Amino acid sequence: MARRKSHPPRPRSVFIWDLPTRLFHWILVCLVALAYVAGDLGGNWMVTHLRAGEAILALLLFRLVWGFLGSTPSRFVSFVRGPRAVLRYVRTLFVRSTTPHPGHNPLGGWSVLAMLALLFVQAVTGLFANDDIFVTGPLYAWVSKAASDRLTKIHLFNRWLLAATGGVHIAAVFFYLFYKRENLILPMITGKKRWRGAAPPPIRRASRLLALLVALASFGAVWLLVR
Ligand code: HEM
Ligand code: HEM
Question: Per CATH, is 15-189+206-226 categorized as 1.20.950?
Fold first, then answer.
């Protein structure tokens, strides 16, 4: 009997990031860049800065809810892992070709949470901030001048933490691309990842209509808060 030749498994395409998560990411990137540039230019650009910041807050609210209702890889339960899983993963960080993850890897999951938390601090402190001249966040009147000053200090300091984390994030994505030969960027654009080997666990896709409703509710809530 002729022996069967063993071929390496053919790569296939696996769905990872749903459209709402991808839109969230790329709109967030554009708005964060706009918030930094407009904040730095100051003057009349502060109006743009405030609107961009409020939109970022709405996006973050959306992502928070989507972390419970979204497709499997976008849910917090699927990417927030315990210290053991993180340590096990860290040991393989400099191994050149590791098996891909059907979503964020255990270390990436925590870096995503850290970025979301820093963005949240930045957006919320901005609501109460003031520049001592003519710009105030929309909820400035809710707190005393001293409290607003403290929150402004946090806003101005946290921007550096946020910029540093964003820089590390981009560097990490390129480290994966060039060192580990894993393209994480393409799945964030197309939603699909090339997959070799055993099938990943089943992925449940969430409804886009639900995403639209959550997005409308998030933007509506922020609009009601700041008007
Ligand atoms: C051109 C620059 C950027 C590129 C190429 C990029 C690429 C990516 C990629 C590939 C992922 C998925 C990582 C994975 O597979 O685990 C991701 C996730 C993420 N990125 Fe970026 N990113 C960029 C800029 C930023 C910036 C500036 C921020 C915010 C400060 C940001 C925030 C996030 C967040 C919050 C996630 C998690 C997405 C989610 O689960 O909803 N990214 N990014
Ligand atoms: C993640 C979103 C945000 C980012 C990245 C960001 C970034 C910045 C930066 C870089 C500055 C400093 C400008 C400078 O003095 O050079 C600034 C100032 C300011 N931001 Fe934001 N901001 C965000 C969200 C918000 C929000 C939501 C509001 C209010 C609706 C806001 C209100 C202000 C105010 C009032 C100042 C003036 C403070 C001062 O210059 O003393 N920001 N922000």
Answer: yes
